[in-house]
Amino acid sequence: MNVKILLLASPRCHAFRVGLYRLNNSQCRVCRNSRAYATQDLSGRLPTSSRKQITVTNDDGRVHWKELTVKEKVARTTQQTFNFGIILTGLVMTGGCAYFLYTEVISTDSKTVQFNRAVDRIRSDSRVKEALGSDHKIRAFGEPTWNRWARARPIASNRYKDSQGTEHFMMHFNAEGSSRRGIVNLHTFKAPGAEWEYKYLALDVKGQPRIYLENSDFTPRKDTSRINFLGMQLRK
Q1: 171 CB-contact burial (10 Å; exposed 0-12 / middle 13-18 / buried 19+)
Q2: Which of 23, 109, 142, 212 is a plausible cystine mate for 153, CB 3.0–4.6 Å?
Q3: What is residue 231's three-state secondary structure?
Q4: pLDDT tens track for 2-25
């Protein structure tokens, strides 16, 4: 017991106690830092100083909104607004393309449907085959353009509605056979609630009389104002 007291009272023992105290303090700091680091890992959050600042170009949405600074919140809002604008623009363009395809190609009122129906009538008519030549299939096309590489030639047409609400459609295009070329003119009309009817469909070939495939001005219409009863014509 006396030996221990002498050792503790000696200067060397004092230096030993100071070294031991410092060692204990350093170990405590390491433990505190380790516990703080473990707490951050378990919570899933990182201090703002240890992560990259959020900008418009590098934001991937992983950092929670509450952890963002005011500047970073502005950057995220700008990015999301821009993305929404792109999506909205794509939807508008898709809807516009769908509307164009329906009105110009699919709908019965479209110019393409009117053109195809007239071409089918011309190719099946024997007088047209005789006038243009029937060695091969008759070709129909639109107006010539300055660009010789353009494959789709525009077709001249006009659409209007009269004072009675009847819709009118007029068109002309070229038709070419093995020997000659002609111009097809057509005029169709559609009354409210009715189907399209031809006012006229004609082919003009240079040096030949006009060939009418449809002509409502010379087509006799059935008189519905009279009733035939026992051989007598009775008016309604």
Answers
A1: buried
A2: 142
A3: coil
A4: 444 434 444 454 554 545 455 455
pLDDT in tens, 106-165: 777 788 889 999 999 999 999 999 999 875 688 999 887 666 555 567 788 999 999 999
Alpha carbon distance 8, 20 (integer Å): 13
Q: Could you write out the DSSP letters of every residue in 14-82?
A: HHHHHHHHHHHHHHHHHHHHHHHHHHHHHHT---GGGSPPP-TTT--S-S-GGG--HHHHHHHHHHHHH
pTM over 0.85: no
Q: What tokens were used for 9?
A: 């009272």
Type of residue found at 160: Y
What count of Cα atoms within 13 Å lies in the side-chain half-sphere of residue 193? 1
Q: Would you say 213 and 205 are in contact if contact means Cβ atoms under 8 Å apart?
A: no
Of 99, 119, 120, residue with least CA distance to 110:
99
Taking the C-alpha atoms of residue 83 and residue 74, their distance in angstroms, rounded to an integer, is 14
Instruction: Show Cβ contacts of residue 235 under 8 Å, excluding neighbours closer than 6 positions.
Output: 225, 226, 227
| Angle (CA) 193 191 162, round 5° | 135
Calpha distance 140→182 (Å, rounded): 10
Which residues lie across from 190 on neighbouring strands? 167
DSSP string, 105-170: IISTTSHHHHHHHHHHHHHT-HHHHHHH--SS--EEE----S-TT--S---EEEEEE-TTS-EEEE
